[in-house]
């Protein structure tokens, strides 16, 4: 059925009422870290900055930020906000490789933001992998601001590429990354492919390889197998950990919490990430952010990290007695920051 002008206008009005003013995109300091922010460094270990800027332009076609540099400066570097210290941008599609150099040029000279990136073919793109694309990934991989190869892996949820092709391309990229001699991290995407991802990573990677299993939502058993085999492997935690439908990731956090404590935190082998623009945390209270009850934060960006850390803290503190040492949001952020240094060297 075609839309009448009136119905189109009504839908636009509804969308507008659910989208907060763009000034609300600059997030105020999270309550839990106001007294600690001077000695905290927020690190987003996995984001898609170009896609996040595109999401902004779609939501705010008349928005004030005309280019990606102004956008990043306003949302991620504003005084009084959850200012990002380091980000790891991700180029995982062939089309991404058209703009990695220009984005790097635009963002690499911020005085207070350490811009880094990884590059590699997402499993959705495995069917399109070519020698030329690999050459371009290798070129990017050699850049001094590139800290890893990824995100690469297996995705059996969508199966956008045949599974055998995904496996072959994953092995090829792992071998290419190792063969480059760059000794950089590997960023893994895995979804509903537990047995195959464990088998392939164990077959292809040395035990000491630094690995980031990004946006982990699969079984606790798969995570435990990878963590026990690879001592330098870290589990990526995004805002999806806050979603009620996700029971796996909180359990992985509980399992890790059983091996560590706030005074001995090294066993908390997590990396905090946004996967921006996707999956803003569900625990961001509208009232605190100056939004109405009907509005929704339109996309994730690095400023949401403290809300993810707050949720991790709550999971870690489940069942603790009054006299037991408790995790804090700042403590989670500090350990995640140290883990980013161990995994990516940032």
UniProtKB/TrEMBL annotation:
Identification of the protein by name = Hydrolase
Recorded coiled-coil stretches: none
Q: InterPro entries attached here?
A: Metal_Hydrolase, TatD-like
Organism from which the protein derives: Rhodotorula diobovata
User: GO terms for molecular function, please?
Assistant: hydrolase activity, acting on ester bonds
Ranges for the region named Disordered are 1-24
**UniProt cross-references to PANTHER family, sorted A to Z:** DEOXYRIBONUCLEASE TATDN2-RELATED (PTHR46363:SF1)
Superkingdom of origin: Eukaryota
Native organism taxonomy: Eukaryota, Fungi, Dikarya, Basidiomycota, Pucciniomycotina
Q: Which Gene3D superfamilies match?
A: Metal-dependent hydrolases (3.20.20.140)
User: Transmembrane ranges?
Assistant: none
Give the keywords, sorted: Hydrolase
**Keyword presence, Zinc:** no
CDD domains per the UniProt record, alphabetical? TatD_DNAse
Compositional bias, Low complexity, is annotated for: 1-17
């Amino acid at each position: 059925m075609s839309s009448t002008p009136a119905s189109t206008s009504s839908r636009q009005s509804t969308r507008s009422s659910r989208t907060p003013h763009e000034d609300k995109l600059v997030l105020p300091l999270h309550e839990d870290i106001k007294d600690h922010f001077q000695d905290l460094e927020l690190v987003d270990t996995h984001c898609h900055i170009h896609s996040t800027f595109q999401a902004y332009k779609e939501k705010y076609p008349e928005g004030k930020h005309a280019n990606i540099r102004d956008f990043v400066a306003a949302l991620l570097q504003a005084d009084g906000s959850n200012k990002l210290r380091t980000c790891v941008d991700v180029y995982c599609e062939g089309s991404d490789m058209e703009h990695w150099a220009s984005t790097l040029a635009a963002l690499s000279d911020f005085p207070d933001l350490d811009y880094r990136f990884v590059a590699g073919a997402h499993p959705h793109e495995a069917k399109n992998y070519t020698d030329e694309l690999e050459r371009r990934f290798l070129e990017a991989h050699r850049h001094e601001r590139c800290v890893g190869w990824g995100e690469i892996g297996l995705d059996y949820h969508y199966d956008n590429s045949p599974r055998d092709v995904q496996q072959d391309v994953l092995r090829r990229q792992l071998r290419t990354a190792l063969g480059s001699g760059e000794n950089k991290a590997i960023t893994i995407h895995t979804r509903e492919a537990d047995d195959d991802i464990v088998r392939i990573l164990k077959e292809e990677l040395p035990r000491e390889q630094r690995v980031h299993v990004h946006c982990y939502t699969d079984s606790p058993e798969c995570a435990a197998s990878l963590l026990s085999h690879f001592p330098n492997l870290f589990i990526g935690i995004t805002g999806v950990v806050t979603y009620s439908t996700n029971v796996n990731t909180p359990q992985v956090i509980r399992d890790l919490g059983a091996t560590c404590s706030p005074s001995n935190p090294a066993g908390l082998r997590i990396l905090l990430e946004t996967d921006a623009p996707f999956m803003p945390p569900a625990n961001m209270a509208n009232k605190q952010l100056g939004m109405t009850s009907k509005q929704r934060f339109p996309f994730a960006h690095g400023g949401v990290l403290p809300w993810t850390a707050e949720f991790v803290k709550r999971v870690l503190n489940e069942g603790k007695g009054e006299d037991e040492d408790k995790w804090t949001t700042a403590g989670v952020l500090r350990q995640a920051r140290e883990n980013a240094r161990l995994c990516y060297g940032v």
